[in-house]
Known about the structure:
alpha+beta
Amino acid sequence: AAIQKAVEPKLGKDVPIHCKLDRASGQLNVTSDVDTGTIDLGRIAAQTAKQVIIQSLREAENQAIFAEYHDRVGVLVLGTVQRIEGGTLVVNIGKAEAIIPRAERVKGEMYSPGDRIRGIITEVKQVAGRVRILLSRVTPDLVRNLFELEVPEVADGVIEIRRIAREPGYRTKIAVFSNDQRVDCVGACVGIRGTRIKAITDELNGEKIDIIRWSESDEDLITNALRPAQLASLQLDRERKVVRVVVPDDQLAL
């Protein structure tokens, strides 16, 4: 196709051109139904052929990258920071580059080129002939995926993560439920001497994580979620989906 494009200006688009490439020897044979004689293509034609080949390769690479990543939205990936452009991190995630915009970064986290970083793929789309892959560090799905990575019981479905509430960089509360009465859902997530939860908080640069036991009772769930504070009273307005909680003054900061 590149050779045909290069020959066209010499012969005109209406002249049929046939190109045959011997992939073993690299020998290229160009013929036409019309007797054109021998044509010296020259440097400009060679440059035209080169540009067509480069463009075709880029398109093929983009199609391959899009095919590999467009079904991986919501997946946790590990990459290396390549460069920083105006607050946006450009990350090498293997076969492609992804970006973490400033809005998807946790406030206070600092990275330099060469640092390893994890993020959740939130978007994969083609923009102006290129594939754009967006990663996020602020989505609650990051915490969910880290628990699946560090806690085998979560990955196996023995423990379910029912709800996650997150203030990125400050605190996450995660409600868990065990499908096996013999497995303590909170203890399994914490790990022996806190090893599992420490690995997750280290990945989140010290973000606090509260693990609470899931309950089908709204009252019990809210009470668990607000611990260690001791509640004096709790009133639910189910129509407005609002809860009013009263605590003693010395518990307010908690």
